[in-house]
Specification:
mainly alpha
């Protein structure tokens, strides 16, 4: 049986949203702090500077990919919180687990940027996409079972949130698996999936006669 304290803990979703915003902001900032400009002692001409910038290409690609990753997960969490009436102790700790996985993103990004040609680095990065996705899915299914979803939330929205997570994670997994062929192909597919969800292109509607 839950104690009184456990029943009243974690009710305020605004505090959870504020904490999430802060953690996402720090994680996004740490991404760019891992980008290091060439040392002035090693650069003696503009061609050398251009070559040094070109050598940083993998780091810039991984940085952009990770920024998209965090942006997508931030938007996903905020969407869920906007449709949840109130929190509970369990829901709060699920989201704290989600935020824990978010704090790992700068680490997996640095690993992939330094070892972009290694499958283990790609696999580790994919796990850092899978874990927060699983936590968000757990959050929504828990909120649905516990009756925490706002009553005016249409069934279409309730179902689309879970469906979106499952489809996205399936595409990420397929993209990560391509590292067995080539790590750059894998990274390229993951970026395309992210751009699809970030830009959300509108598909033309079929005309009805």
């Amino acid at each position: 049986m839950l104690t009184l304290y456990n029943r009243i803990q974690g009710r305020n979703l605004e505090r959870l949203a504020a904490l999430s915003d802060g953690i996402f902001a720090v994680a996004m900032t740490l991404l760019v702090l891992d980008l290091h400009t060439p040392s002035p002692a090693q650069i003696h001409s503009e061609p050398e500077l251009l070559q040094a910038f070109a050598a940083m290409g993998p780091q810039w690609v991984v940085y952009g990919m990770s920024f998209l990753t965090l942006g997508i997960f931030w938007a996903g969490q905020q969407t869920q919180l906007n449709h949840i009436e109130e929190g509970t102790r369990d829901l709060t700790w699920i989201h704290l687990g989600f935020l824990f996985s978010v704090t790992l993103m700068p680490l997996s990004t640095r690993l992939l940027g330094d070892f972009v040609h290694y499958r283990i680095a790609v696999g580790t990065y994919w796990l850092n996409i899978l874990l927060p996705g699983c936590m968000l899915y757990w959050s929504w299914t828990y909120a649905s079972r516990a009756g925490l979803i706002k009553e005016n939330t249409p069934a279409e929205i309730r179902n689309s949130i879970c469906r979106r997570i499952l489809i996205a994670q399936s595409l990420y997994a397929a993209g990560a698996a391509l590292c067995l062929i080539n790590t750059w192909i894998s990274i390229g597919i993951i970026v395309l999936v992210q751009l699809n969800y970030a830009i959300a292109p509108r598909l033309p509607r079929a005309r009805t006669s």
